[in-house]
């Protein structure tokens, strides 16, 4: 039983963030829908999970399972006619995980361009250059706590801006 729990925890840590991003794009930033669909997806993984020989095959199965969970969620919410559901299934099948990732990176790039230079510099130093936060704080004449607080605010701001843009697509 312990091995099963460890395996699920590893699966969750590896795939939950990827599925979350995937669904954010698919739902145009509707976080409540994303949470509901992810919960249903996790239950389906537990129910129908099986071993796969390759990660790419597993990811394809997982995204198909997630798309099906999303379609079922939409059907329950809206009682959509069959032809609308079929059109939605086609659109969702065409949206690959790579496209989703590229789209999110593109949105992030647009948002970063609108950020203040100081905010971007902090992000660049901490996350792109991977400098220790103590060194970044000293470089920018900040206490470590002040740097951590700023990074939290910047990440929150980016998240809110991305969700807002996704809602309007």
What this model shows, in words?
It is a single chain. This protein has helices spanning 2-26, 31-48, 55-78, 82-94, 97-114, 117-128, 133-139, 144-167. With 169 residues, it is mainly α. The protein folds into two domains: 1-95; 115-169, Arc Repressor Mutant, subunit A. The longest helix has 25 residues, at 2-26. The model has no long low-confidence stretch (mean pLDDT 81).
| Beta fraction | under 5%
Q: Oligomeric state of the chains?
A: single chain
- In angstroms, what separates the terminal alpha carbons? 44 Å
The outline comes out as: globular
Main pleated-sheet profile: none
- What gyration radius follows from the Cα positions, in whole Å? 19 Å
Helix/strand class: mainly alpha
Number of strands: 0
Which range best describes the helical content: under 10%, 10-25%, 25-40%, 40-55%, 55-70% or over 70%? over 70%
User: What letter string, H or E per element, gives the SSE order?
Assistant: HHHHHHHH
DSSP summary: helix tally: 8
Q: Show unreliable segments.
A: none
The residue-averaged pLDDT reads: 81
Write the layout of secondary structure elements.
Blueprint (H helix, E strand, L loop, with lengths): L1 H25 L4 H18 L6 H24 L3 H13 L2 H18 L2 H12 L4 H7 L4 H24 L2
Helix pairs in contact: 1-2, 1-5, 2-3, 3-4, 5-8, 7-8
